[in-house]
Each structure stands twice: as C-alpha cells, then as structure tokens.
Amino acid sequence: MSLKPFSEKFRLMCLHYLVWASIGIISFFSMLQADGAARSALSACNSCGFYALIVYGNINFLYPRFYQKKKYLPYLLGSIVLLVIAGIGRGYLSLYIRNNAFAAAPHRLDAWSHITFLLSVTTVFILSFVFRLAMAYFTLKQQSEKILLQQSQFELRLLKAQVQPHFLFNTLNAMYYEAFMEAPRTALLIERLSDIMRYFVDQSTNEYVQLATEIQFLDNYIALEKMRIQPEPEIIFQRSIDDQRKIPPMLLMTFVENIFKHGIDKISGSNNIYISLYEQEQYLVFQTRNYLNRHADPMQMQGLGLKNLRQRLTILYGKDFDLYTTEENEEYFVASLKFPLT
Questions:
Q1: Taking the complete model, does pTM exceed 0.70, yes or no?
Q2: Going by DSSP bridges, is the β-strand pair 272-280/234-240 parallel, antiparallel, or unpaired?
Q3: Following DSSP, what letter does each residue of 153-188 receive, concatenated?
Q4: Gyration radius (Cα) of the chain, Å
Q5: Band (163; pLDDT cuts 50, 70, 90)
Q6: How far apart (Å, rounded) are the C-alpha atoms in residues 217 and 252?
C-alpha cells in the first residue's frame, strides 16, 4: 500500500529516517578523528543497525504483545533476551570488522567490553521504552480530542435536527385547529399522532420515563390503530399502578404492536383484546391477551420484536425478569412481562 505524500504516516516515516540518519552522522563524526572515515562509517552502521533492532523490537513487538496486555514477566524475559542478543551481536560484529579490515593483530573482547556493550544497548532500550510510553500518551490524547470533536459535531447536528420535528409539530397543531370545527374525529387523530411523535423525539432516548407518560403513549397508539381497523376491536386496558413510577421507555410497546401486527383477524372481525398492567411486590407486570388469528399468514415473520425486547431486558436487568408467550386453550394468545420497578 503506497503512502500519500504529506499524509500523517508519510511524515512519520520521514521523521524516523531523519532520526536514524542523524544518529548515524553523529556516530560517524564522533569516531572520525580516532578511527578514520572507513572504520567510523562501518562502526556507525553497525551501531545504528543494532540500536534499530532494540528500538523496533521493543516498541513494535515486545511492548504491544506483552507490556500492554500486562504480561510483565514475559516482557521482562523478552527484553533481557533482546538486550543480550543485541549487545553481544554488536560487540562481536564490531570485533569482526576490526580484526578483518583494520587491525594488524587480532583483538579479543574482555569482560569490560561485554559490560560496555550491554550497558549501551540497555540505555537505548530504556530510551525506546520511554519513547513508546510517550507515543501511547500522545495517541490517547489525540483520540480523546477526536472524540470530543465528534461529540461537539454530533451535538451540533442534533440541535439542527431538532428544527425539523418542531416544524412538524407546529404544522400538526395548525392542522388540528383547522380540522377541529369541521371534523373533530380527524382533529383527535392529528392530536394523538402529534403526541406519539413528540414521545419519540423527547422521551424515547431518555434512560427512564414516568409510567404515566408510557401509558399515555400506549393509549395514543391504541386509539390510532382502532381507528384504522374496521370493525373496531374491543380493547379493555386495565391498570392498577402508581403512574409516577419510572421505567425504561418502550418496554411495553412490543406486546401491543404485535397484537395489531399479527393478532388482528380482519376476515372474521372478532378481535377482543385484554391488556392489564399492575404492580406485584416491587415488580411491574404487563400482560396482553387476544384471540388467535386463524387467518394469519404463516409465512409472515414473527418474533423479532420479542427477541430484541428480551435482549434489551437482559442488558437492563440481567436475569431478573420474566418474559413469555403462550397459547391458552387453543383460543387465546397470551404474552406476559415482569420486571423490577425502580
């Protein structure tokens, strides 16, 4: 994959080349007066090669595979192996170059030479570790700044998006007042539709909503569906609950939506629906009961809404909830939900 000129990766690669070129030049001129040009050049290349092995072996292999995963003992052992290989390798390669190209008589490495080489590569390793920590810090800082920027942009888009729903609400209100005098039934539908949409915009994204708000949302939805179906289904919605309690939004909607989506028999017109909502020992119990739809399309997909509801309940309450559906006496379809109240 080619790097684009002036891209961030391209600039970083150029910076690496510049750093190693600077280290090589400094090493070359530091030994030039004592060792001559040829020996200084070979020594500088030898040092840079093993220093690069230490730096990139640490920051690209040992650090991400062991240190970042908190495997400190393997990281320590791997670092020691890397330092020994690099220190001894640098020392013996330097000795080989010297004996075969420049020395009149063979030289040997004494104990102090081994210690010197190990100390030099250890210093480079420590610097590479500090450098890698600095890279991690600046990467994390850059990601944090990017997240803050994205959050600011999202908030700005959200503020802009709020203009459209409010424009729609104002339009629906105007339509309501126009229809109220001549078609009160149509005006009522417009009012309920406006309340449903306002719920989606203002309440559905909250962590909790008042039970009274959730019940009003269900009432509006049921009223709209009843107007759509002929003959109108008979719906009994019994409730015995403190409607000031709070629950996560949209938990009760799935059962009611499934009734109108899958449980309405438009052919026979026999559609009796019973809904109950009550409190039981600090738990909210919500049950629906409707006639089985004998004329339902067997190929129609069902169960996705309940599956999503179960997943959401698991996230919210773990295993502290009950959700089941059953057929009763081969005549009714019953759905029941029970979860703790806050």
A1: no
A2: parallel
A3: HHHHHHHHHTHHHHHHHHHHHHHHHHHHTT-HHHHH
A4: 37
A5: very low
A6: 10
